[in-house]
Automatic annotation (TrEMBL):
GO terms for molecular function: oxidoreductase activity. It comes from Cafeteria roenbergensis (Marine flagellate). Coiled coil: none annotated. Residues 214-252 are annotated as: Disordered. InterPro entries: Nitroreductase, Nitroreductase-like, Nitroreductase_HadB/RutE. This is Nitroreductase domain-containing protein.
Length: 252
């Protein structure tokens, strides 16, 4: 796993002549589907764009070099954050009940979900929910989740799924590039999504130039130069922020 994580990088370009096999694409999307999800609400959708026409439409929504990544990659995945995830809460409750969750849990699930996902009234519902939370936190003095718009919460959940997707892609020798440089309005239009959805990310997927293929799989992966990162000692602390991790101080 260490080697896999270290091999993964955000590809700067793709070989348009090398397609992504259906089984590889399905495995990548299945990894995203199985990612952890708060209350199993899964407040995101993904639209896989593979056709020449679809990729060109999407490219017009991307900024700068991201447009060429979408044009050259055989697959781009538009990640949509659901701003009205409560519309699906009845289906979530049903699935949880069918999975054997106790009645006391499923009965309380809609209330718990509303804390994070809000209602189904978009920004107006967000404003009322955040105001009620701020008042409750002030009056009660108990620990409560920090109020945040539904888009912030849904985007966090989507980010977890995207991380799983990127690791699964690397496991199959696929290069990937998660991109947030985009025009969300145009990206929604390119895939036929309504304003119910935000577009935090588009992920381009394929093979980097120079990849050698053998029997339909990547037989020799290009070895990218690892992107620079802060040393572990500057990123991770032990117990309180600023305390050395691991104990005795990190050397990396």
């Amino acid at each position: 796993m260490d080697g896999l994580v270290n091999w993964r990088w955000a590809a700067r370009d793709f070989d348009p002549a090398l397609g992504v096999a259906d089984e590889d694409l399905e495995a990548v999307m299945e990894a995203a589907r199985r990612a952890p999800s708060s209350l199993n609400l899964e407040p995101w959708r993904a639209v896989v764009v593979r056709s020449d026409e679809g990729r060109e439409r999407l490219a017009t929504a991307m900024l700068a070099a991201n447009a060429d990544r979408v044009r050259h990659a055989p697959v781009s995945i538009v990640m949509l954050a659901d701003l009205e995830a409560m519309r699906d809460v009845d289906n979530v409750v049903r699935r949880e009940a069918e999975a054997g969750k106790p009645r006391e849990y499923t009965d309380g699930l809609p209330t718990k979900a509303a804390v994070f996902a809000g209602g189904a009234m978009g920004k107006a519902g967000d404003a009322m929910r955040l105001g009620a939370f701020a008042l409750a936190a002030t009056v009660s003095g108990v620990a409560l989740p920090t109020p945040q718009p539904a888009e912030a919460w849904a985007s966090k959940q989507l980010g977890i799924a995207t991380g799983f997707m990127l690791v699964a892609a690397a496991a199959r020798g696929l290069a990937a590039a998660p991109m947030e440089g985009l025009d969300a309005h145009r990206a929604r239009a390119a895939v036929g999504a309504s304003s119910r959805f935000a577009v935090p990310l588009v992920v381009a997927l394929g093979y980097a130039p120079g990849t050698e293929m053998g029997e339909g799989a990547a037989s020799a992966r290009p070895v990218p130069l690892g992107s620079p990162r802060r040393p572990l000692s500057e990123t991770v602390s032990l117990e309180t922020l600023g305390e050395a991790f691991p104990a005795g101080g990190a050397r990396r």
